[in-house]
Amino acid sequence: MAIDLESSWLAVLNDEFDKDYMVQLRAFLKEEKQAGSKIYPKGSDVFNAFQKTPFTDVKVVILGQDPYHGENQAHGLSFSVQKGITIPPSLRNIYKELVTDIPGFTIPSHGNLTEWAEQGVLLLNASLTVRAGTPGSHQKRGWETFTDMVIKTLSDKKEGLVFILWGSFAQAKAELIDKTKHHIIKSPHPSPFSADRGFFGSKPFSKTNEILKKEGKKPIDWQIH
């Protein structure tokens, strides 16, 4: 696993890569490959969220749990899929909420959220890899230790960030965030199993932009082209 972090991330996270948990994680991933398992996303995309959203540029964090485990779906950004791939149900619901939340938003023909990442929206999954066809297969192997450190580092070293936490898994990460410096937006998960229980109508995107304006930051253009 090549550690492919953008330089401003490397400056704040460099020490993590020599720690025991990361050495063990790398060994586990190597074993998976040697056993013939297919791992998503492909190696060059594992740290894509960090490449597309430098530490210096982060304004918003949207936290997911696991990469998609189907072929050609995951590319290292939470909730996002590569162009040409069917839009997954949770992302379809995110788009539906955007239609009612952001005036003029039109549902795009694809599910690639790179445009958000390039505006300072860190699309972070708690686990950065998964075995093909097996959701949750790389949980509790070390990734969460790393991504918890990412959240804590953002909380400690930056100010006025917006953390969007959908569902109980993401909301449990609120304990890592200094609420005196940052803003947390919570709602049920956009999954079809829970979206009707309060995700729809929660207006996370307009709320985020209102906060960013108050913080003197440029709001996000949520329209995907």
Write up this protein.
By secondary structure, the protein is of the alpha/beta class. 33% of the residues lie in helices and 11% in strands. It contains eight helices and six strands, in the order ααβαβααββαβαβα. It has helices spanning 7-13, 20-34, 48-52, 89-101, 114-117, 143-157, 167-171, 204-214; strands at 39-40, 60-64, 121-125, 130-131, 162-166, 183-187. The protein has a four-stranded parallel sheet. A two-stranded antiparallel sheet has the order 1-4. α7 (167-171) links the parallel β5 (162-166) and β6. The longest helix is centred in the N-terminal third of the chain and has 15 residues, at 20-34. The chain is globular, with a radius of gyration of 17 Å. The protein starts with 6 loop residues before the first helix and ends in an 11-residue tail after the last helix. The model has no long low-confidence stretch (mean pLDDT 96).
Keywords:
225 residues; alpha/beta; two-stranded antiparallel sheet
Report the sheet-strand fraction.
5-15%
Rounded to an integer, what's the Rg over CA atoms?
Answer: 17 Å
Q: Oligomeric status of the shown chains?
A: single chain
The neighbouring-strand order within the major sheet is 3-2-5-6
* Mean pLDDT across every amino acid position: 96
Report the biggest beta sheet as strand number plus sense, adding barrel if it closes. 4 strands, parallel
List unreliable stretches of 5+ residues.
none
Question: Residue share in helices?
Answer: 25-40%
Number of strands: 6
Provide the structure class: alpha/beta
| Helical stretch tally | 8
Topology order in helix (H) and strand (E) letters: HHEHEHHEEHEHEH
Terminal Cα separation, in Å? 32 Å
Overall outline = globular
